[in-house]
Amino acid sequence: MAVTGVAVNCYWNGRVKKEQNDVVYEGAQMNVLPIKVFHGTTYTGLLDKIYATTGIDRQTFELNIICRYPISSQEYKPIPIKNDEGVELMLEVPSRAVVYCVEIYLGERPVPLRAEAIALLTKETNDSPQIDNKKVLIWCRRKWEDLNMDCLVKVFQKVGMEELLLDVPFVCKSWYEATLNPKCWQNLIFPENFFAFTDRVRKEYQKEVQITSFIKSMVNRSSRCATTLMLPHCSTEEALEYAAKNCPALRDFGLHGYLSQKNASVIPKVIKNWKNLEVLRLRRAHNIQEIVQQICVHCNNFHQLMLPESCVWEDAAYAIVTCLPKIKHLFLKGATIEKMSLVMILQRCKELVRLDVRDCFLFDESDGEILEIASHIPSFSCQGSTRIDNKEDREVHIGLSHWDAHHFFWGSDEPYDWNFVS
Fold it and tell me: What Cα–Cα distance (Å) separates residue 338 from each residue in 99, 362, 422?
């Protein structure tokens, strides 16, 4: 069942006045703004929304919330809202009276001094220096807007997209303003559980989320400054092409989930936009030859290729050693790769720092020749890799791999741990 909301008029910068059978809010500087509060909202959630909407400084003022509550059809009383139960009562007002909007009145009171500040102010010893009470007061009540904006932006660069979009902006006005800085959106890493994320966006903004438009809007926030882009597995060709054109500074690109056949055909075409590309992350890629050829032509700083669960046939291996002979990091965990293709990579990519071929098919983890050739690589992993000796089983695996690359993927599309090289 859909979560419904209640319209609430929020009054502040005035005072509550009790009348015989009613309660009103008045004041020459009085402000009023409507907000929508959903059933199930907690007291903390209500406070967050009020502070974000009114711009009242949370670090300086505490709020006293009064609800104009119907006692009967012709009588209203001021009811304080102090906990989750109070919020529930407030949201029941439209069902108790013939009204379409709840009224709440805000009282502001200064945040009390911290206990340690009080102790500091009252401490009297011969050895203690004279304390400036005004400085202590400022220290206790420092406003968020006084915090250096560059510091805020630096912190928010480390925050995930979901928090940056749905949590941080509603803390206070200065945090909201900081999230508008394009530098906060340099790392455009869409959540792995994209549909749960967009569902939360839909509930927060009461709008349906169109995937392509949403991806474009997130890309636009970076103002062409994005250096990392990790798109959801459901990205459309249009969204991918738009992101490529509007992220010219990109150094790290990847896709959550499996690489679809449509997106696979787009990626070689858009790589030319990423002159600074260093890292590429594609799960179950099946046009490796075209991709690395474009990287060779356009990306001089490229050093890390991640192709887990991909089919690295002889032509793909040859493309890697020919186009990327100086590659530093190669991640092929779970790939299908024959021994001769792996040997080719080991012999010709002499600057490899790390090669991960764990859980691969068509070569054995204990193959002495492979271990000998790979001995010069500082970090080489091949645990769990197996050779398929049975001819029929081998042909079935190779056949499935070829079919898989050109049709649909079998197996579960679970989130993948891309933390290979930091």
Answer: 73, 5, 29
Banded model confidence at residue 125, pLDDT cuts 50, 70, 90: very low
3-state secondary structure the chain: CCCCEEEEEEEECCEEEECCCCEEEECCCCEEEEEEEECCCCHHHHHHHHHHHHCCCCCCEEEEEEEEEEEECCEEEEEEECCHHHHHHHHCHHHHCCCCCEEEEEEEEECCCCHHHHHHHHCCCCCCCCCCHHHHHHHHCCCHHHCCHHHHHHHHCCCCHHHHHHCHHHCCHHHHHHHCCHHHHCEEECCCCHHHHHHHHHHHHCCCCCHHHHHHHHHHHCCCCCCEEEECCCCCHHHHHHHHHHCCCCCEEEEEEECCHHHHHHHHHHHHHCCCCCEEEEECCCCHHHHHHHHHHHCCCCCEEECCCCECCHHHHHHHHHHCCCCCEEECCCCECCHHHHHHHHHHCCCCCEEECCCCECCCCCCHHHHHHHHHCCEEECCCCECCCCHHHHHHHHHHHHHHHHCCCCCCCCCCCCCCCC
Q: Decide: 160 and 189 in contact? Cβ < 8 Å.
A: yes
Question: What does the alpha-carbon distance between residue 221 and residue 226 come to, in Å, rounded to a whole number?
Answer: 9
Among 61-75, 218-232, 398-412, the range of highest mean pLDDT: 218-232
- Alpha carbons within 13 angstroms on the beta-carbon side of residue 349 total 29
Burial class (CB in 10 A: 0-12, 13-18, 19+), 281: buried
How many residues appear in the chain? 422
All residues at 6 or more sequence positions from 122 whose CB lies less than 8 Å from its CB, including other chains: none
Cα atoms found within 13 Å of the Cα of residue 418, Cβ hemisphere only: 24
- Centre a 10 Å sphere on the Cβ of residue 320 and count the other Cβ atoms it contains: 27
Mind listing the pLDDT tens digit for each residue in 379-398? 999 999 988 776 666 666 56
Residue corresponding to tokens 């480390």 = 158
Backbone CA torsion sign across 92, 97, 98, 102: negative
Nearest CA to 401 out of 229, 254, 277, 284 is that of 284
- Number of Cβ atoms within 10 Å of the Cβ of 227: 16
Q: pLDDT for 186-242, tens place per residue?
A: 999 998 888 888 888 888 777 788 889 989 999 999 999 999 999 988 888 999 999
